[in-house]
Amino acid sequence: MDPKELILGVQRRFLAEGDLPQGVFYSSELWDRLQGHLEERPRGEAEEDPSFKQLIPYGVLTQGPKVFVYQRLSKSGERRLRGLWSLGVGGHARKIPGKDLQDLIEENLFRELREELEISPWPKGKPTFRGFINDDGNAVGKVHVGLLYVWDIPESKVEVREKAKMAGEFMFLEECLRVDPELWESWSWWVLQELQTGMEAVKTV
Predict the structure, then answer these.
(1) Residue 1 falls within a domain, yes or no?
(2) Chain mean pLDDT for the chain
(3) What domain range includes position 73?
(4) Which end of the chain is more exposed for a tag (fewer CB within 10 A), N or C?
């Protein structure tokens, strides 16, 4: 981590009057507030300030009923998350001059996906914004807010780039839900519940 790297975020007080919802939730009002109050801060400073929420574009890749999952191994750079399972690829958002919030978030997400994964061929179309992710119950979550995007990429092969740090594969959603919740990163477990709800809704139509 470069503590001097400038990353985008927003002061918590601008996001909501009182506490933010926990888990995955959709709010057009929150999106509007982000657009009006984004600011840059050095990453090292932001990591220690729970009054400031860093934006994390968080991309989940699916292939029909399967979702791409990975596990952070012992050599992973993020010590707080080693050994845990995840189904989202994400990272800090950086300012891109001339871009509105939607394009800025998508371009930062694409950058993270290309850095972490080998995706071939690169998918057509765009990911779908599903909402925000918030979990103030742990040190990582207190200083971040996620922007959840789901991208169905049935024709692409996906592999992790740094195989010494991560192992990844597509798994059926039902298999993921059978894994002990304690073994998942908190955001990923919230997202699994959201994906399950979405699939159950489709089945009932």
Answers:
(1) no
(2) 89
(3) 6-204
(4) C
The per-residue pLDDT for range 60-109, each reduced to its tens digit, is 999 999 999 999 876 545 555 557 899 999 999 999 998 999 999 999 99
CB 35 within 8 A of CB 10: no
Hey, how many other C-beta atoms are within 10 angstroms of the C-beta on 78? 13
Whether 76 is covered by a domain: the verdict is yes
Scan for tokens 């007080």, then name that residue.
13
Q: What is the pLDDT of residue 76?
A: 47
Write the DSSP symbol of residue 183: G
* 127-139 pLDDT per residue, tens: 999 999 999 998 8
Residues 140 and 142: their CA atoms lie apart, in Å, by 6
Assess if residue 42 is contained within a domain. yes
Element (H, E) at 4: none
Amino acid making up residue 138:
N
Residues β-bridged to residue 8: 40
Q: Please report whether residue 24 resides in a domain.
A: yes
Instruction: Give dist(CA 82, CA 74) in Å, integer.
Output: 6
Q: What is the CATH number of the domain that holds 160?
A: 3.90.79.10
Looking at the structure of the chain, the number of domains it has is 1
Residue 13 in tokens: 């007080």
Answer yes or no: is pLDDT of 176 > 90: yes
Q: Are strands 85-86 and 166-172 parallel, antiparallel or unpaired?
A: unpaired
Give CA–CA dist 186/184, Å, rounded. 6
Q: How confident is the model at residue 197 (pLDDT cuts 50, 70, 90)?
A: confident
